[in-house]
Write a structure and sequence with these properties.
Blueprint: H1 2-15, H2 20-24, H3 31-39, H4 41-48, E1 56-61, H5 63-73, H6 82-91, E2 93-94, H7 100-104, E3 111-114, H8 129-134, E4 145-149, E5 161-164, E6 171-172, E7 174-176, E8 182-183, E9 185-187, E10 194-195, E11 198-203, H9 213-219, H10 223-232, H11 235-240, E12 244-249, H12 251-256, H13 260-263, H14 266-275, E13 277-278, E14 292-294, E15 300-308, E16 311-316, E17 319-328, E18 331-336, H15 343-349, H16 371-383, E19 386-388, E20 391-394
Parallel strand pairs: 1-11, 5-9, 12-18
Antiparallel strand pairs: 1-2, 3-4, 4-7, 5-6, 7-8, 9-11, 10-11, 12-13, 14-15, 15-16, 16-17, 17-18, 19-20
């Protein structure tokens, strides 16, 4: 009996003993990538055959992804340079064996996943302790990340699509990469999406390599923030600084606060911008309610997290995140619905914004002021902004953050 069980186990184990090329060739919608692999087989065999990298999860571009790439760039993926080819493949390789359950059972948070993309041009950041602990250590987790999000998750108006061959009903989810781009993710069952080195799933577009914050902000259409950073000549510093999180008020938030990108003097505007720059990479799935994070001026910003009916909403001070995890080469950005009011001002004036809770931690979020009141308060704070040494005691409207 034991002998029969061992033979059965060997047979079942052998069902998954296949190279990535062999596994890919069984999926019709990956026929273009299968050809792409064969055309670059020496490189592919060396890269995907490196067992020291196992286990990994590869996000394989579908046939539609090849068409979309050509339509966008007027160049076929079959004709990309070796350097570009390597970066594309590296960014599509996640450094863990990730199944559909990993993408959908994160408690509404989504997951930040490191990749094999490690060159400094696309990855001018270091690995945080929490990310390293989750993905096997500092060295293994040091690559640039993607953010994967499933139905009903996170603070973003953009819903990605996650599909599974186990169900005919698509779920809202997908993969976020550079320049705020989003592609849909189709997960494969274990018997179809497994190979010697781990797993693979299907994406309907190529992931976009993260680039500078300046290019990312412009691509996202945050014109008011771009104008403010230009006026203060901070872009060079912002783009060269490692490990920052930019908290970026939207264009509407700038307008509601009295257009500080135009009306403030350079010194005051620079202080506002620096207050909106956190000195660490604060991916949304690692944020907790009541957490406090230092800005580049060593001031404090407080996180609020509310989870309700499968949805997760995040605030920084009084400002709600409306688009999370906009990845850059040196960190990330979160787009906000308001300019942040400093904690000192919130604690003394009970200032709140557009339905957000007060700054004082509590187990339940409370809505204590209307959007109109918050906007008026922010504008008033801006008008009275002063600078005392390095501490910004009052100001209330502005955007992004950096350096």
């Amino acid at each position: 009996m034991l002998r029969h069980l061992l033979l059965l186990g060997t047979a079942l184990g052998g069902a998954y003993a296949q190279t990535l090329l062999e596994a890919l060739s069984k999926v019709p919608e990956l026929s273009n990538f299968t050809t792409f692999y064969r055309n670059n087989e020496a490189f592919a065999a060396l890269y995907f055959g490196n067992t020291s990298n196992y286990p990994v999860t590869f996000l394989a571009p579908s046939n539609n992804a090849f068409t979309a790439y050509y339509n966008q760039h007027q160049v076929s993926l079959f004709d990309v340079s070796p350097t570009d080819l390597l970066q594309i493949v590296q960014y599509h390789t996640l450094v863990s064996d990730l199944s559909r359950d990993n993408f959908t059972s994160s408690g509404g948070k989504g997951i930040t996943a490191p990749t094999m993309l490690r060159d400094s041009l696309n990855n001018n950041r270091s690995t945080g302790v929490s990310l390293a602990a989750k993905y096997g250590g500092l060295e293994r987790a040091r690559g640039q990340v993607v953010f994967i999000q499933s139905a009903g998750q996170a603070s973003s108006p953009n819903r990605f699509k996650l599909m599974s061959r186990q169900s005919s009903q698509p779920e809202n989810a997908g993969v976020r990469s550079g320049l705020a781009s989003i592609v849909s993710l189709e997960t494969l069952d274990a018997d179809q999406g497994t190979w010697d080195g781990g797993r693979f799933h299907i994406v309907d577009g190529l992931l976009t390599l993260p680039t500078t914050c300046e290019k990312t902000i412009r691509s996202a259409g945050l014109a008011s923030l771009d104008s403010a950073v230009n006026r203060t000549s901070l872009w060079a510093s912002v783009d060269s600084t490692k490990n920052i999180t930019c908290l970026c008020p939207s264009n509407a938030a700038f307008q509601a606060a009295g257009n500080p990108d135009i009306t403030l003097n350079i010194s005051a505007l620079q202080d506002v911008l620096l207050y909106h720059a956190l000195s660490e990479t604060a991916y949304s799935d690692f944020l907790t309610d009541g957490q406090e994070i230092k800005t580049l001026q060593n001031l404090t910003v407080r996180v609020r997290v509310e989870e309700r009916d499968g949805n997760r909403t995040i605030w920084f001070n009084n400002a709600r995140v409306i688009d999370a995890n906009v990845l850059t080469h040196n960190g990330l950005a979160h787009v906000l619905d308001a300019v942040m009011v400093p904690l000192e001002q919130m604690n003394t004036t009970n200032t709140t914004a557009s339905g957000t809770p007060s700054a004082t931690p509590s187990s339940t979020a409370t809505n204590t002021a209307s959007s109109t009141a918050a906007t008026s308060s922010a504008a008033a704070l801006l008008a009275g902004m002063v600078r005392v040494d390095w501490v910004l005691w009052t100001f209330g409207a502005s955007l992004l953050a950096l350096i």
